[in-house]
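User: Good morning. I'm curious how NAP would be positioned relative to this chain. Could you predict the structure with it bound?
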Amino acid sequence: MIIGAAGGVGTFAVQLAKAFGASVTGVCGAAKADLVRSLGADDVIDYTRHEIDRDGPRYDVVIDTAGNRPLSLLRRAMTPRGTLVLVGSGFGGGPLFGGYDRQLRAPLVSPFVSQRLRSLAAKERAEDFEELGRLIESGAVTPVIDRTYALSDAPDAIRHLAEGHAAGKTVITV
Ligand SMILES: NC(=O)c1ccc[n+]([C@@H]2O[C@H](COP(=O)([O-])OP(=O)(O)OC[C@H]3O[C@@H](n4cnc5c(N)ncnc54)[C@H](OP(=O)(O)O)[C@@H]3O)[C@@H](O)[C@H]2O)c1
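Assistant: Good morning! Here's the predicted structure, ligand included:
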């Protein structure tokens, strides 16, 4: 399950998971369901109508990029030995650490439960980019471009991103 499946990270995550053979459920708002399906998602949960644990403990892997849901809720959607990867939270979170609250707690909770709870810090590795390039050339992955802005309109681009409802990547042309 990929939470935030329509975002800049999620649109890649859905396609990569499909390219590696996973069965994928994407979580997004109703307006983005068709986009997420078009990327290959087998199922879509419209989070404005259903919470992600609607079907009980079902998912082997949950990649969480949006919504800042509590760890307890995420764990209810996961199989007993499932893996949670926290990528980002969007806005909100605890008073001290904001959206990073869960990233700090997950590794502390993980040793005491059967599920694996992990935070992700993206690293740029040449071999990953080469593999990504191959997947894009083969058509297995297509970057989704939301909007394109001129450099002089960068503040508008940032404002658009900050609204938290992008559909794919926001591009600034230089
Ligand atoms: N750990 C790392 O190394 C790393 C790397 C890159 C990014 N990040 C972080 O990852 C997060 C996502 O980045 P992004 O570039 O993908 O953001 P983005 O492009 O702004 O996408 C956010 C997506 O979240 C969806 N969304 C908003 N509220 C939601 C909710 N309650 N439940 C489910 N989906 C919801 C929105 O879709 P709807 O319009 O349908 O709501 C939107 O498509 C950010 O916090 C970013 O800082 C972390």
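The pocket of NAP is lined by residues 3-4, 6-10, 27-29, 32, 47, 65-67, 87-90, 120-122, 161, 164-167 (CB under 6 Å). The chain has a mean pLDDT of 94.
Let me know if you'd like a different ligand tried.
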